[in-house]
Amino acid sequence: MLIENATLADGRVRDVRVDGDRIADIATDLSPSANEAVVDATDKLLLPGAIDAHVHFRQPGYGHKETWETGSKSAAAGGVTTVVDQPNTSPPTVSGDAFDEKADFAQQSIIDWGINGGVTAEWDPDSLFAKPLFALGEVFLADSTGNMGIEADLFADAVARAAEEDVVVTVHAEDATLFDESAKETDDYDAWSAYRAAEAEAAAVERALEVGGDSAAQIHIAHTSTPEGADLAHDAGASCEVTPHHLFLSREDYDDLGTKGRMNPPLRSEERRAGMFERLVDGTIDIVATDHAPHTAEEKDASIWDAPSGVPGVETMLPLLLEAAREDRLSYERVRDVTAANVAEVFDLPQKGHVKAGYDADLTLVDPEASREIRGDELHSNCGWTPFEGRRGVFPELTMVRGDVVYERDADGTDSFGDADGQNVRG
Ligand SMILES: NC(=O)N[C@@H](CC(=O)O)C(=O)O
Ligand SMILES: [Zn+2]
Ligand SMILES: [Zn+2]
C-alpha cells in the first residue's frame, strides 16, 4: 500500500510505503507499482498508532462492562494500535494459568496487546514470570476496583523479584492511611476527591520510588494526578503517566459528571489539572495512558460512596490531544511522542512507536481540522458513555496495525473494522 502526500507530525510531507507488516519506505517521490493500493493523504496527518499502556478490558470476569472485542474496536476507532491490560480481572492475573486464561480472551482483539501481571498475597511469581508478560502492574498500593491493595512487605518483595526478572513495575500510587475519613460525612460528589487526598498520592509515589531504588528496579508511576506526584517521579528518574481525565477534567466538573466523575486517583483542583497539562507540554510527564476503566451507566448510578471507580477513555485520548494541538495548546510532535514514541521507549517495544522505515506499520490517519463533538452513543465501548460528552475531538479516519486496516470511517460516517488478528507484543 502507498500512502501518498501524508503530513507527518513534524510537518514534513511524505509518501509512505507499507509492505507486509512493516513500513518499507518514506520519501517524497514514491509512485505506486502495479496493483498497489493507494491512499490519498493530502492535507491529512499520519501518526504512529497510539500505544495505550493502561487499559482495563475486563475479561475474564466482567464482559458486561467491556470485552476484548468491544474494547479493541473502541481503541482502533480512537487511533490506538496497542493496548496493555491490567490485572484486576476475575480471576486476577497473578499466576501463569490466569495469564493464559486472559490471553485466550485477547485472541478476540483486533489490535496488538500486552498483558500485565498483578501482585496479591496469593500470587504465584514463578508461573507468572514464565509467561510473556508486558510488565508487572498495575501494583495497587491502595484498594481500587478489584480490591487488590497490598502490604508494604509484599510490595518490596514483588519489586525485588521484578528487578531480577528485568521487568518494569507500574504502580497505582495512593496511600490509604492518608485518606481523609472526615470527607465521608457528606454525599457530595466532590467528597470523593476530598477523601482520596492529593497528599496520599505524593506519599505513595515517594515510597514506590524508594523501594524501587533499593532493588534498582525500573519503576513507572501509573496515572499520576498531581503535579507533586509527577515531579517526584521525574526528579527520581522514573517515568510516569497522566490520564486524559486528569488533563481535561477537574473537581469543577462534578456538577456535570456526578458519579461518572468518580475514579482513582480522583479528579483534582482546576489548579492541579492545569499543572498536569503544563507538565505534559514541558516533558516532566512522559506518556499519556487512559486507565480506560469502563463500568455500565447502571452501575455508576449510585451514591458517590457506592458507585464503582473508573471511566472509559481509550477511544477519546488521541482525539482530545489532537483537538488541543489544533488549538495550539501542545504540538503535534508532542502528541506523537507522549502517545507512541515515549511509550515504546519506556516499555522497550523496539518495533513500535515511530513512522520510520523498518518499524511496524501501526499507523493512524486524521484530518487535523475535522473536529467534532464527542458523543457517548457514537463510541464503541460496551459501556456506552463517556466523561467527555459534548467536548470536541479530532477522530481518525483510518487505523492500521502491522499493515492491516483495522478501522476505517467512510465519507458518510460509517465505521468498519478489521479481523481479530491482534498479537501479543511480547511475542
Ligand atoms: N481507575 C479506576 O478508578 N478504576 C480502575 C482501577 C484502577 O486503575 O485503579 C478499574 O479497573 O475500574
Ligand atoms: Zn489504578
Ligand atoms: Zn487502572
TrEMBL record:
Class of enzymatic activity (EC top level): hydrolase
Pathway: Pyrimidine metabolism; UMP biosynthesis via de novo pathway; (S)-dihydroorotate from bicarbonate: step 3/3
InterPro entries assigned: Amidohydro-rel, DHOase, DHOase/Allantoinase_Hydrolase, Dihydroorotase_CS, Metal-dep_hydrolase_composite, Metal_Hydrolase
Keyword Zinc: yes
Cofactor: Zn(2+)
Catalysed reactions, as listed in the record: (S)-dihydroorotate + H2O = N-carbamoyl-L-aspartate + H(+)
Annotated active site: D291
Recorded GO MF terms: allantoinase activity; dihydroorotase activity; zinc ion binding
Binding-site list for Zn(2+) 2: E138, H172, H223
Annotated residues for binding of substrate: H56, F57, R58, N88, H295
Pfam family, one: Amidohydro_1
Residues binding Zn(2+) 1, per UniProt: H54, H56, E138, D291
BP-aspect Gene Ontology terms: 'de novo' UMP biosynthetic process; purine nucleobase catabolic process
Family statement: Belongs to the metallo-dependent hydrolases superfamily. DHOase family. Class I DHOase subfamily.
Role noted for this protein: Catalyzes the reversible cyclization of carbamoyl aspartate to dihydroorotate.
Protein known as: Dihydroorotase
Gene: pyrC
